[in-house]
Amino acid sequence: MRLILLGPPGAGKGTQAVTLIENLQIPHISTGDIFRANIKNETELGKEVKSYLNEGKLVPDELTIRIVWDRLDQEDCKDGFLLDGFPRTIPQAEALGIGLKERGLELDRVINIDVPKEVLVKRLAGRRVCKGCGATYHTDYKPTKVEAVCDLCGGEVIQRDDDKEATVLNRIEVYESQTKPLIDYYEEQNLTLNVDGTEPVEQLSAQILQALKDA
Ligand code: AMP
């Protein structure tokens, strides 16, 4: 299955991705994760994209599209994939569509996770992540047992630079102006599956999986 997870930052795309890839046995391709891994490893790509991420701005389309196709052309994506955080602009969506067509492939579904803006700000500002294993926490909804220490690996739990409040607001604004138009873009292709991202995590996963099965 070839799927896209669409939704504002903080909608829970990463959380849903974990359950979906486990059930559907497809790789999870998160452009945000690819960029962050490159920044952490101080690669050339990492150096190039660091300031965009820190300011909550989008990495230029051309570079992002190239990174995504490098990944999608790998063997493990042959039978499907779950794209999370890509596409984020109309040109990215068009480039994806053209590339798929060239390869004789099609998208199956675009899962749009909808969450009101006030909820997003609260979710994102409280989000914390383990520097060691990447486990995610939240100061209100899922705190660590010991402050700033990962329950799973004992690593240091921090706030991502791009989860700081000014960046969060910028990321939401960028979403509204650049990414939201993709909902209509995919709706016109009859691909969109709209779900309510304020529902409990497990309930939402079950609902998405059922809808994919029924399609
Ligand atoms: P995410 O983890 O998906 O929220 O992505 C974190 C950051 O990575 C974004 O705020 C952007 O700076 C960058 N990024 C991730 N995906 C894309 C994309 N498809 N296009 C441009 N920039 C992206």
Give a summary of the structure in a few sentences.
The chain is α/β, with parallel strands linked by helices and 215 residues long. The protein contains 9 helices and 8 strands.
Molecular structure report:
By secondary structure, the protein is an alpha/beta fold. The chain contains 9 helices and 8 strands. The protein has a 5-stranded parallel beta sheet with strand order 2-3-1-4-8, with helices on both faces. Strand 5 and strand 6 form a beta hairpin. It starts with a strand and ends with a helix. The mean pLDDT is 94. The structure holds adenosine monophosphate. The site of adenosine monophosphate has 18 residues, from helix 2 and helix 3.
List keywords for this structure.
5-stranded parallel beta sheet, 215 residues, 48% helix
Write the SSE topology.
Layout: E1 2-6, H1 13-24, E2 28-30, H2 31-40, H3 44-55, H4 61-72, E3 81-84, H5 90-102, E4 109-114, H6 117-125, E5 127-130, E6 136-138, E7 157-158, H7 165-179, H8 181-187, E8 192-196, H9 201-214
Parallel strand pairs: 1-3, 1-4, 2-3, 4-8
Antiparallel strand pairs: 5-6, 5-7
Helix pairs in contact: 1-9, 2-3, 4-5, 6-7
Adenosine monophosphate is lined by residues 9, 31-32, 35, 52-53, 56-59, 64, 85-88, 92, 162, 171.
- The unreliable regions are none
Find the count of extended strands (DSSP E, 2+ residues).
Answer: 8
Distance between the amino and carboxyl termini: 12 Å
Note the run of SSEs as H and E.
EHEHHHEHEHEEEHHEH
Rg (CA only): 17 Å
Shape: globular
